[in-house]
Specification:
The protein is of the alpha+beta class. 37% of the residues lie in helices and 20% in strands. The longest helix is centred in the middle third of the chain and has 16 residues.
């Protein structure tokens, strides 16, 4: 429009539509159209891997999960799994299962510059994380990444995501994540044995040829794991990925090492003291207690109050009802909440502390950070009164 205004001002007599038509014919301001072309892959050369978010219903709850997919480029053999998260640990677990499903490894695995694999760089300059590079060397392949914006380069793995969402996930619910991925594997077996119009072949039949060109898997494949250093909390639990696992009460306060694998969680105090749990993915913030870690029948849970609770009730008996309600309705871990409340009692004058606690109890407020602000307002008003100097002049 600005060019048309300048041309009209210089005396040119032409319409705006004539100007835009001229620009289109001459290719001015237009992106040159380039044909997409095709990629051809020899058997056993490349596998493409990518992830896509989907919503799934597991155990009567809906979750936003990540679908990880892998496709052999020559035969179009499909394998996918769905998990609530997809971190580096999950990536190694998935690729291990995908290579086992294929019965061999290709020369390279194409990715989309994901931070799970990439340390720095993009496209041909991509450098993988040393941990993932070592993982690839174990199976005899290498990671490569396509250029940013070149989505056609990974089209083999991009296409099945819509197919998974509209065919496998549509109308299905799952009892657990294990049930979901078992049924996904069965669905892959059925789909891979079905004739595909766009390739005019059956993936399983093409795979019979491609499998001969895949590199054999190692004779021994070590189990993928990650380690966590934790301290056993005062209730006898170890928290890993926002899920708490029980240990013997004698371990309370001790440092332990948690070894997480795909299916298990091993908590080790030393070489002779190891507790094994089934690994849970959801729901978060749950407690998993083994039968041997439960108190003997009839004794129930430990009824001894926390040391902080005893100190609070002894120093200020009038706040005992608030302390009891805080243990039930507070959002923090009980021990941490009691410790913070005891600090407030010791750090601030008694009168503003008690007044703020009584007001918080009346309105059902159990946010201790807000309680501290209420105390500070009273302290500022009652203990730091500034003299009006003008009145003494």
């Amino acid at each position: 429009m600005r060019v048309h205004e300048e041309l009209a001002a210089s005396g040119a007599a032409l319409s705006y539509q004539a100007l835009t038509g001229f620009c289109r014919r001459q290719g001015i301001g237009q992106t040159r159209i380039v044909p997409a072309g095709q990629y051809y892959f020899e058997p056993g050369v490349e596998m493409q891997h990518d992830t896509s978010p989907h919503e799934v219903e597991v155990g009567v709850r809906k979750y936003k999960a990540q679908t990880a997919s892998a496709v052999l480029c020559y035969s179009r053999l499909l394998f996918f799994q769905i998990n609530p998260t997809f971190q580096r640990f999950d990536c190694k677990v998935f690729l291990t299962d995908a290579l086992r499903y294929a019965g061999g490894a290709p020369e390279r695995v194409m990715i989309d510059n994901t931070h799970v694999v990439v340390l720095r760089g993009t496209g041909r300059e991509m450098i993988p994380v040393p941990e993932m590079e070592a993982f690839a060397e174990r199976f005899g392949f290498r990671f490569v990444a396509h250029q940013i914006g070149d989505a056609n380069r990974s089209a083999r793995v991009e296409r099945p995501f819509s197919f998974i969402e509209n065919n496998f996930l549509a109308g299905r619910t799952f009892a657990s994540w294990e049930d979901l991925n078992q049924r996904a594997r069965q669905w892959c077996d059925r789909v891979n044995a079905t004739y595909k119009k766009h390739i005019r072949a059956v993936p399983r039949e093409l795979f019979a040829v491609e499998r001969l060109h895949l590199k054999p898997l190692p004779a021994w494949i070590p189990e993928v794991y990650r380690l966590h250093q934790r301290t056993v909390d005062v209730e006898g639990y170890v928290s890993v990925n926002s899920i708490r696992y029980s240990v013997p009460v004698a371990w309370i306060g001790r440092r332990v090492e948690a070894r997480e694998t795909r299916d298990k969680l091993e908590i080790e105090l030393d070489a002779r003291h190891i507790v094994t749990h089934d690994r849970a993915l959801t729901p978060l913030h749950q407690r998993i207690t083994l039968s041997e870690h439960k108190p003997p029948r009839g004794e129930g849970a430990r009824r001894d109050p926390h040391p902080e609770e005893q100190a609070l009730v002894t120093a200020a008996p009038e706040i005992a009802p608030y302390v009891a309600a805080l243990k039930q309705k507070g959002r923090k871990v009980v021990a941490l909440a009691l410790r913070q409340l005891l600090r407030l009692l010791r750090d601030y004058p008694r009168e503003p502390f008690l007044a703020a606690v009584h007001e918080a109890a009346r309105y059902g407020l159990y946010d201790l950070d807000r309680l501290e602000r209420m105390i500070l307002r009273r302290v500022a008003r009652d203990y730091f009164l500034l003299l009006d100097t003008d009145s003494h002049d």
